[in-house]
Specification:
InterPro entries: DUF58 (IPR002881), vWFA_dom_sf (IPR036465)
Number of strands: 10
Oligomer: single chain
Radius of gyration: 21 Å
Protein name: Protein containing DUF58
CATH architecture of the largest domain: 3-Layer(aba) Sandwich
Distance between the termini: 44 Å
CATH class of the largest domain: Alpha Beta
Organism: Rhodopirellula sallentina SM41
CATH topology of the largest domain: Rossmann fold
CATH superfamily of the largest domain: von Willebrand factor, type A domain
Order of helices and strands: HHHEHEHEHEEHHEHEHEEHEHH
Helix content: 40-55%
Strand content: 15-25%
Structural class: alpha/beta
Number of helices: 13
Largest sheet: 6 strands, mixed
Strand order of the largest sheet: 5-4-3-6-7-10
Low-confidence stretches: 1-14, 46-56, 86-90, 307-313, 326-331
Length: 331
């Protein structure tokens, strides 16, 4: 029997965008628009897309609902009662927390982890804006960099992309600082996406992530790594430099490879364990992977947050908005 594929697999097979090609685009908003359009092109080619979906702005009428919310035009078309959901029911707040420490400046593919992470964040911001969701941003290294509250007003996306484009200035990484700060700043439940290489101690991470979860937020960690960090692609003895401390030392790959992989896997296991124990989504993303794959992670996280909204409906709504968006401009 042939193995069945879900809609995300079909979409990915249909339209993969080479991240190298995306990174050649200088304008960050145009990068994000390219990734989102590629994502929807994949869905349009999928046989599972567009088959009798309901938009997430509506829900079936139930006894006790306020009759003033009935959509009579929809009733005339379908002979069924639907309640039109108000804006505060359909919109969600999304917060992008992006690591801009010096270690994120590493890369072996012609671009760095921070360039890939910025493009990821810009893609999420563009996608959420298309859905009329509010988007906020916090950047950090060893301290908080920029903070933009979640908004949906004209020009907000452009401000967010400007903040993302600022050059890396910090040295070390303290993931716990932005987690504490974002938990204190945001009061309405939302989706928090933390994008980092997580190359730092994770001792206090469980406590701070658990605090966010206790306040009702959906949280997802996107660990962004260069392929050489995953596979240890150093073949000859050489001098290497720690990007965050500036310390240089001699490295013999033959003697260091096994120890590196052992420590890397142990750190990865601890990180996953922390996330699993408190219900936080964890995804590892290599910078040579297509960026639109991450949108499926975002949709899965948002779907768990949105009670009663169908995944297909959410995609259809954003797809329609994308079709009406002006080329190269703010949605």
């Amino acid at each position: 029997m042939a193995e069945s594929k879900n809609s995300s697999t079909i979409a990915n097979d249909a339209a993969q965008i080479d991240p190298v090609a995306v990174m050649r685009i200088k304008n960050l908003q145009l990068r994000a628009k390219t990734v989102v359009e590629g994502f929807f092109n994949g869905l349009h080619r999928s046989p599972l897309h567009g088959s009798s979906v309901e938009f997430s702005e509506y829900r079936p009428y139930t006894i006790g609902d306020d009759l003033r919310g009935l959509d009579w035009k929809r009733y005339a078309r379908s002979d069924r009662y639907y309640i039109k959901k108000f804006e505060d029911e359909t919109s969600r707040n999304g917060y992008l927390v992006v690591d801009q420490s010096r270690s994120m400046g590493y890369g072996t593919l012609g671009y760095t982890k921070i360039e890939y992470a910025r493009t990821l964040a810009a893609t999420f911001a563009y996608f959420l804006t298309l859905q009329r969701d509010c988007v906020g941003l916090m950047t950090f290294d060893e301290a908080i960099g920029d903070y933009l509250p979640a908004r949906r007003r004209v020009g907000h996306l452009r401000q967010l992309l400007v903040a993302l484009s600022r050059p890396v200035a910090g040295t070390g990484t303290d993931i716990n600082v932005p987690l504490k700060q974002i938990a204190n700043l945001i009061h309405r439940r939302g989706l928090v996406l933390l994008i980092s290489d997580f190359l730092s101690p994770i001792d206090a991470l469980r406590t701070n992530l658990a605090y966010l979860r206790s306040r009702g937020h959906e949280v997802a960690l996107l660990r962004t790594l260069d392929p050489s960090e995953i596979d240890f692609r150093i073949d000859s003895p050489s001098m290497v430099r720690d990007l965050e401390t500036g310390q240089e030392f001699f490295l013999d790959p033959e003697s260091a490879r096994n120890e590196y992989r052992e420590r890397f896997n142990e750190h990865q296991t601890q990180l996953r364990g922390v996330c699993d124990s408190i219900g936080v989504d964890f995804y590892q993303i290599s910078t040579d992977e297509p960026l639109q794959d991450s949108l499926f992670h975002l949709i899965e996280s948002k779907q768990r947050q949105s009670s009663g909204a169908s995944r297909s409906g959410m995609l259809s709504r954003a797809s329609a908005m994308l079709a009406n968006a002006s080329p190269g401009g703010s949605p």
